[in-house]
Amino acid sequence: MRLINGRTTTLLQASLLAAGGSLVSSAVFSAPVVHGYMMNVQLVPAVCSLDPQRNKKRKCMEGYSLNITGLYPETNALDCFSSSAVKLSPIQAKVVARVMPDENARNALWHDIGGCVPMNASQYFRTIITYAEKLKIPEELTSQETRQMQAAVLRNKMMRLNSSLPANGVQFSCQPSYAGSILTDIKICYKSNGVYKSCTGIVSSSCPPSFTIKGSF
């Protein structure tokens, strides 16, 4: 495992920019029943190299290794739209930007799924930070070196670093390239109380047994 100042690297620590401070809490809004969540962790060097149009985005230009695209609720609701505003304090916005640097993407995410989570925007993004602080990641995901890796090896590393994570509680997504399949996303599944759980059938891997992990830039 990778160490930073003698401590195990978590997703939050590995996301480049440091910030601190307390987070804002407020009243909980009513919402459909949530049976669990799936957090999608994007490997920034991979997605930036596969799509030149993304090279102008902050996460590409500033050298992020990992980026959370969202914490998606598992619910039977058909429409999760929310018209409520994303109101984060300056301190909270700075902390959230460590793992979700694109403010427009954060706002769009909330408007897409906010109606299906039992919390307001501030609490939702605080939950993402809590999960990011807990999740430990293998050093290969933030290394400057591009390498080939077996899916089974990476899965075992994730399970060893996160002792309660079941084998099918982590899923991988890949995209084809001239150099073969490149790992672009890691999906982590949670119960509604934040405990790791097995992913449902709709959350599955799209990677071959072996793939490329693009080195950070």
Label this structure with key terms.
two-stranded antiparallel sheet; 4-stranded antiparallel β-sheet; 217 residues; 6 helices; globular; alpha+beta; disordered N terminus; single chain; 22% strand
Description:
It is a single chain. The chain is α+β, with helices and mostly antiparallel strands. The chain has a single domain, classed as Ribonuclease T2-like (Ribonuclease Rh, Chain A), CATH 3.90.730. It contains six helices and eight strands. The protein has helices at residues 44-50, 58-61, 90-96, 103-113, 121-134, 151-161, and strands at residues 3-4, 7-8, 36-43, 66-74, 147-150, 170-177, 180-190, 210-213. The strands form three sheets. Strands 4-3-7-6 form a four-stranded antiparallel sheet. It has a two-stranded antiparallel sheet with strand order 1-2.
How are the SSEs ordered, and which strands pair?
Elements: E1 3-4, E2 7-8, E3 36-43, H1 44-50, H2 58-61, E4 66-74, H3 90-96, H4 103-113, H5 121-134, E5 147-150, H6 151-161, E6 170-177, E7 180-190, E8 210-213
Antiparallel strand pairs: 1-2, 3-4, 3-7, 5-8, 6-7
Give the N-to-C terminal Cα separation.
20 Å
Classified in CATH, the superfamily is Ribonuclease T2-like
Integer tally of domains: 1
Largest beta-sheet details: 4 strands, antiparallel
Order of helices and strands: EEEHHEHHHEHEEE
Counted by DSSP, the helix tally is 6
Count the E strands. 8
- Beta-strand residue fraction: 15-25%
> In the CATH scheme, what's the topology name?
Ribonuclease Rh, Chain A
Which CATH architecture? Alpha-Beta Complex
- Basic shape: globular
Average of per-residue pLDDT values: 87
